[in-house]
């Protein structure tokens, strides 16, 4: 059990972030143990042939049987707008000591593939990760990011309606909050208490954790990676729910979109989910917004749509 002790200033410093490098590192879990990640099996199937041409030895050495990855692959994002190129630049410059200690925190000894000169080993690791990103995650990142951003918008609405404690107690069954302490149930056998020390806690939604993940090493900046809502919508093409009365009023496609917006989503995500173009989705969303059924908010580079109170009532929610 990991417990983060938060002061009043730490509670004011609870923030969200998105890290492409976190997603990249954590995704190696599903590659090594696909049976534990059923929601990502479609992604694994689509990328199977691409992964055959990658440096599998280097990539597999970055995750162990307990599904732990080194802390240097789980950076604390400074904002929801973190770019993978910026994170790679930092990873390129990690010290030999950080690299070795990170690997030894998940393995009993240094993996053979990284047993050579540290600088050379670091170059091999970053090269393997870059190729892995380009082949397997970059093509799907816009939709992944849309799901992660939608999750953060949802959590923000929970804070506004029910308070910070309700949000923290709702992000995962492995995370709980009470009286200034955030507890994270991890697979590690030992327990430890970390004092945030005024740095707050960064919450990172991810597609590749089942319950919750946190840094392995003691003294790391408070970070909780939790499962994003809507992972199951990543690959499925929706057919929409049927409501004859509502269809007669606003049309079949707009009824499907209004129903789908039970969780915030971008027009790009909705287009993929329903198998139609983003421009067609935008046309329908504008009509729904003009009717007062849908509202929107900008999050980073994306515009996320969600149902208004009138849209909630009309859809029977």
TrEMBL record:
**Which intervals hold domain DUF5937?**
119-227
Q: Which residues cross the membrane?
A: none
InterPro entries the record matches: ArsR-like_HTH, DUF5937, WH-like_DNA-bd_sf, WH_DNA-bd_sf
Q: Which Pfam families match?
A: DUF5937 (PF19361), HTH_20 (PF12840)
Protein name (record): Transcriptional regulator
Q: What species is given as this protein's source?
A: Mycetocola zhadangensis
